[in-house]
Amino acid sequence: MGLSTHVLDTMHGTPAAGMAVALYTTTAEGQATLVRRFTLNADGRSDGPLYDNDSLRVGTYRLVFDVAGYFKGRGVALPEPNFLNQVALDFGVAHTDQHYHVPLLVSPWSYSTYRGS
User: Of the four, 18, 25, 52, 90, which is 20 to 30 A from 61 by CA?
Assistant: First the structure.
């Protein structure tokens, strides 16, 4: 399955439908190259894998989630500046024959992630 992501809105108890996300490749020097931008579907997922197993490469990646934009779009009154604006998750892929699923559980004030299956 390659690489996928899924976001759950823990404030509302729903998938984070409509959240904007960007995927980057990164280097050891910290440089990031944009691969693509996308919007999460009604299930809080991208439409299809971000990379399939044939195109996924060993290396480092970054997913950037527009948390503040999403919650503002849901009508949540956020302070200025917001506590969380964008959440960037840097992670590595060591085995391209495995599925790397990067879920995010998020509210306007906290987030957590893990390597899913």
Answer: 18
